[in-house]
Structures are given as C-alpha cells and as structure tokens.
Amino acid sequence: MLAPKKTGNSKLVKKLNKEEVLQQVVLHGQISRADISKQTQLSRPCVSALVDEMIQEGLLQEVGMGDSKGGRKPILLEYNYQAYAIAGAIFEGSTLDMAIADMKGEFLARYRKRLAQPANGETVIEDLAAGLDRLLRESGVPRERLLGMGVGLQGVTQRGSGTVSFSPSTGWMGSPIQQTIEARLGLPVIIDNDVNMMTLGEYVRGAGVGHTNVVYMYVGTGIGAGIILDGQFYRGSREAAGEIGFMMIGSVHNRPNGASGVFETHYSIPGIQEQAKGFLSDLQEGSSVIEELIRHAKQNAEAKELLADVYRHWAYGMANIISILNPEILILSGEMVHVDGEGVKQIHEWLREWVPEVPNLEKASLGERAGLIGAVHSVLEAFPFTRLLDKE
Amino acid sequence: MLAPKKTGNSKLVKKLNKEEVLQQVVLHGQISRADISKQTQLSRPCVSALVDEMIQEGLLQEVGMGDSKGGRKPILLEYNYQAYAIAGAIFEGSTLDMAIADMKGEFLARYRKRLAQPANGETVIEDLAAGLDRLLRESGVPRERLLGMGVGLQGVTQRGSGTVSFSPSTGWMGSPIQQTIEARLGLPVIIDNDVNMMTLGEYVRGAGVGHTNVVYMYVGTGIGAGIILDGQFYRGSREAAGEIGFMMIGSVHNRPNGASGVFETHYSIPGIQEQAKGFLSDLQEGSSVIEELIRHAKQNAEAKELLADVYRHWAYGMANIISILNPEILILSGEMVHVDGEGVKQIHEWLREWVPEVPNLEKASLGERAGLIGAVHSVLEAFPFTRLLDKE
DNA sequence: TATCTTTGTTAGTAATGTTAACTAACTGTG
DNA sequence: CACAGTTAGTTAACATTACTAACAAAGATA
C-alpha cells in the first residue's frame, strides 16, 4: 500500500534510471544519448530505450544535430519545459498577484487584482479560481497540463497540515484551507507564508543561487527569516524556525506587552517608526522608512544616532544567526534593501569583528517577484522533474 | 566510477531490497520471513532468497521458533549484532578513553589511559594503536571484523577533510591526521570534536532519543552547541555551525580582546569564575564552579546576583537558538548539568515568557560516556546496517 | 483423524539491463 | 575521392532478479 511496489519485475530500477537520464538532460540543457550513457554508466541501448519512452510521453524532444566529434553527429535531446505548467499566487497586502509558468519557472502569463478589504475567505477563493482561468486562457496551457499551484500569503501558515491560522489579507483562518482550495481548483495546492516563498525564490533564481546554506532575513512589519540548510528548507519542529523576531538582543528593555519579542518590538519597521516619531512624523504613503531615516540622518543628529543603533542591532541579530548556523550567504530583504552601501559596509565590518566566519551579505535581488517565483518553485519542488515519471 | 554501477543486470534492486529486509529485522528485533514479506511488499520467495544469502554472509541468524498463528510456526530471524564491531576513542583533557562495541553500540570492552602532557602527536597515535590492540584482545573480536574507529577530541576539527587545526591534548595539528591514523591502524577513521561526538551520543542513546530536531548546548571551558536538524547533523558551510559562544547577548560589554565573543567571554566557566573571583577564590581541584556558586548563593547576596545573571544570560542564548531553530529538545550539558531544579525551572519560566514554542529542556543523561558512545555511533552512521551489504 | 492455516520452498515466467555485434553517418588523409 | 578510423545509435542474445502459482511442511482446531 504505502511503499512504492516493486511491481512485477521491478519497475523501480527503470524509474530510477529514467530519473537519472532526465536529470542529465536537465543538467546539461542539450545532450545526446551517447553522452548520457557515459555520464550515467548506463549502457547505450538502455539509454536509448528509456529516452524513446520519454519522448513518447512528451517529456523529452529531439532538437537537432550536434557537432561531430570525429564520427556520426549526435542527436541532441532537450527537456520539454512546456510539457507541464505550474501556477503561483501571492497575497501581499490587498493585492493578489498570480502567474503561470513552465517547468523552467519562466512566467508564461501574469495577472494582478486588487481585493476588497476586509477580505472574505470564500470570495477570495473565487478570485483565485477566476485568475487561474484567465491565466490558462492567456497562456494557452490546457488545464490537464497544470501540475499544481503554490500560494504564498502574509500571516501564519502550517504548511504540513495545509492550514492557515492568521491571515487578514485572505480572510482564511483555521479550517483546512488547502484541501478546500484543492477541491475548488481540482489541483494540488501548496500553502506557505510569504517569507518562505520569497526565500525559495531567492534561493533558486536570485541571490542564493549556487549556495546550499542560505538565510533570508526579512525586516518589514515584522522580522523573520527563511532558512535553507544543506539545500533543504528547514522549518523547525513546529514550523516555527526562523522566528528571529523573538531573539533577545542588545540591552534588554522591558517589553511593552507579551505580543512580540525584543528584536521585533524595537527593530522592525513599526518599532523603528515608534523610536523615530520625534522627527519622522511626515511619512508619505508608500515611501520607505529606512530611506527617510537615511535622508534625515544627514542633517539630524538624533536620526543619525537612531540609524546607527538600528544597523547595530540588525548586525547583532545577524551575528547570532551566523554563530548558530554558519551560512554561506545572508540575504537582506524587506526594508533592508534600502540600506545604502555605507550601511552595508558598516554592518559587514562589525560582523568581521564579532564572528569568525562572515558569510556573503547580499540584498535580495528579485524585488517583488521573489514571492511569486518562490510560489511557482514550491510546486516544482513537490513535483521535481524526476517525479513526473509517476504520471505514467 | 562515481555512481554505484548498476552492474550486470542491475544488482541495485537486489541491494535495495536486501537493505529493506535488513531494516525490518533491525526494526523488529525478531521477525519471520513471512512477516518481512508482508511488511515490505516483497514476495515470500524473494525474501527467503535474500535472507538465506544474508545468513550465509553472517549478517542474520535464525534464533528459534515463534508462536504459531494457526499454522506452521515461523522461524524467527535476528540481526547478528556481533557480525562486526566498531571502536571509539575520546581525548578529554589528558586522558584517552577507548571502547570497542558491537553493532548495537553496546560496549564489549573499555580502556583508559593517562597521556603524558604536553602530548606528542606521534606517540599519541601509538597509544591509540596499543589501546586498540588491547581492546581487540580483551573482547575477542577478530581485527578483520572491525569496521572503523571514531575519534573525538577537544579542539577544532574539520571533519570533511579529516584534519585537526587545534588540539593541545593530542598534539595533532594541521596535517591530514585522519589519513595518517587510517594508514597506521589499517581502518577507516572518523575525526570530530568532542561536543559533536557527545551530541551524537545523546541523540542516539541519551536525552535526544525519539527527537528529530535536537540542540545540544555545552558550557565548559568554552560554549558550543551540536545541532541535529530533521535527523541530520548540521555542520554549517565551513563546519562552524554551533559556535554559539560568539553570540552577542545581553548588554554588550567591550570585549577584552579579539579572541572570543561576548557570550563565551562572560558566561563560559572561565568567564563566570572571573566575575566571581571576589568570593570564589578557594576552588578545589575537580569541583564544579556552578555547584560552588549555588552553594555560595544561599548566603552571599553577591553570589546570588551573579548566579541569577548567569542563568538569565544562558536563557538569552537559549531564546536565540530557539527563535532561529525551533528545536524539539534542548539538551543542557557540561557545567549546566549542575544547575539545580530551581534553576532549570527559572530558566524555563523565562523562556515561556519570551518565545512562543519552548522546547523540552533536559540535562544530558549519559554523563562522561556520551562522547564515547557518540564516537562509536559516528562510525555506525558511516556504515549503517544497510551499507554492510557492500562488504560482499 | 481430517481439514484449515500459516510458513517456507520450488518451478516457471516476465521485466529489465548488459554485452557483442551491427548499421549509420561523419572526419581526415594519402 | 576512396578508405580507414571514429562516434552514434540499434538489434539480438543473454543474465539477473523478482513475480505468480503450486507445493510441502508443520501446527491448530474440531
């Protein structure tokens, strides 16, 4: 029942070998049967047979001849990235941002909608369904080619059980919302919070590419982190890993209430605004608190002091993360992307003074697309190339 | 070359299936061929064939009849834990502590020796070789049945490359010491620092049993942590994960020198001793600083205050670890095992106030045997039951 | 004692990958 | 420009492995 039955005369090996062949193709972009054979230690006849099957299934395609290496020209094979498609959706504030993508993660169509606030959980699902219909029409992808949808949202999610315990922007609470959406759309759905989705996006397409230990640090309304260790997303035993807002940092003030930890209370954007309210009362809609603070710091001594204090405490947080996790790269996101070169340099210097192994410090590079890219890849992660073989 | 060749006509499946059979036997302790067949979805004839081979190889043995369930009595099979043996060694201070164990990790013989100080790297290797000879003789294990040796030591190790960069107790520095020892002993050797070995020990046999996300926090001469996430040891990108002594904690004092971070500087045992030198000058050899401090705190107000400060800052450190990693259990070791029930309760209360998901807080349960047990298991980890099948 | 159950084995079959030998197609050289 | 040498891909015969079906062994139950 549970175990994948090594049916009849062991299709298992065949599947494993097909996976390996597929992996080689994806890895090399274009490759011939003969080269796959060399890479995989599988015999040429075997590779030929497996490749032929996968061409039948639409997973691979022949794309022409390669250059001769002194003999017959090889037939180049390519993964058919259009074989399947994936959808992604992000709820950020009051907007719903959706996209449909091929198996490379390349967007084929995109769609945005403003949602009425406060959100009503049921109409939001209808919005999602309508958006998906439109994306399918626009991209020309047939519905049965869609593998699934990744949904990211601000709030508190339990990815394991597919539930959402707090999310004003969608109005989803409590109930097993993942199953509800799956039933409505007729598709596998993955739900996760927006920081995790952005982390994944930066990991596969942004600043994190090529690294295996990545921490994505987000400062906005709250402070949180996404953690990827040894190439795997780490979520913690109760999906509460990366809740770095609860760190006890710097001289420990009394907390105003029991809601949030010291770090987040004082050094998230609302916390900073609170500290800066003496001179930062005239904030424009949509402008960056950090940018404003940097501007004020050029003339105002009080602002300058606060800015240095903020940087310093952010650096304390980073030092703690680094001490514990020794990541290769720390990706700065949210309002942190507005820190100027000067500020990053300062933080880097402190870290060099405090900890033995300072990682790369880089700003998030995908901007507002990070979450959507991550949402799409969350599905790719659940249906890796190699698992497509199960689809018969 | 690299890939395990699916030689001839795919021995791979056979190996996979053998692994699964072996796993079932280990899991159940005693089990019949028929039950293995039910558990694994493999046919009874297939299981029989695989089991017979493994009996030939000495990995399994028949141990008698089980109870009838209405028909023929089953023949019970057991894993032969004596099929192979493993050695472990720990250098702690000036003593070398060694053991030889069966595949269950059960010690068959143990051996201790005081080493001359300062240690000379070459004679230490000879001590290791002599100790191993003695253990083999004493336990009656033939040398060719020995799978490998795990070596734990105080200091800085690079397990990946098998080198040791700092280790006064062994005198090993720089050179690829792992290969040197392997050549001398004719055995695979695994070298790691003592905290990692103790972490592993507690994980497989001590307080960490049954958990998948474990942080082992050690306070002694230094402060460090061993980290196991999703059942895997996490070492960080440059093997510097768990260097929690570098955390920036509490009100940040100026550091006396560049050698170590704030947390370790003030709240490791030497740091505490420094702070307590007003009233804690008369320490006996071999006594516990924390025990003494607790004793003094009963009468001396200054000691009481320091003790509370120490607990509080340890708790800050734990809060940071918990915020980032959300482990299921935090194992307290080193001098922390001397904290009394009162102290643990206090720390627990603080944590409940500060962070949303407080893990189990437990003292290390294996005492000084933890490191040795871990050393033995580091080899078991590298040669899991299932990988013994490669030994033909 | 006769029948039913459960365990374990034997015999024949199907699936899969391998090697060896072959065809196809191209390069380079005298 | 023909021919040897090389590389790519295919075909055919064979080996390995696990499966199903049938059977033998051994005990329970009535």
Task: Give a quick set of tags describing it.
homodimer, 392 residues, alpha/beta, Arc Repressor Mutant, subunit A, Nucleotidyltransferase, domain 5, 3 domains, 5-stranded mixed β-sheet, 12 helices, 21% strand, disordered N terminus, DNA-binding, WH-like_DNA-bd_sf (chains A, B), ATPase_NBD (chains A, B), xylose metabolism (chains A, B), ROK family protein (chains A, B)
What's the assembly state of these chains?
Answer: homodimer
End-to-end CA span of chain A: 18 Å
Task: Estimate the mean pLDDT confidence of chain A.
Answer: 90
What is the CA-atom radius of gyration of chain A, in angstroms? 24 Å
What is the fold named in CATH at topology level of the largest domain in chain A?
Answer: Nucleotidyltransferase, domain 5
> Main sheet of chain A: which strands, in order across?
6-5-4-7-10
**Helix content range of chain A:** 40-55%
How many DSSP E strands of chain A? 15
Overall 3D form of chain A:
globular
Task: Give unreliable regions of chain A as ranges.
Answer: 1-9, 254-260
Level-2 CATH architecture of the largest domain in chain A: 2-Layer Sandwich
CATH class of the largest domain in chain A: Alpha Beta
Main sheet properties of chain A? 5 strands, mixed
Class inferred from helices and paired strands of chain A: alpha/beta
Query: What's the CATH H-level superfamily name of the largest domain in chain A?
Result: ATPase, nucleotide binding domain
What string gives the helices and strands of chain A in order? HEHHEEEEEHEEEHEHEEEHHHHEHEH
Taken as a percent bin, the fraction of beta residues of chain A is 15-25%
Count of DSSP-assigned helices of chain A:
12
Greatest interface and its participating residue counts: A-B, 58 and 58 residues
* Tally of structural domains of chain A: 3
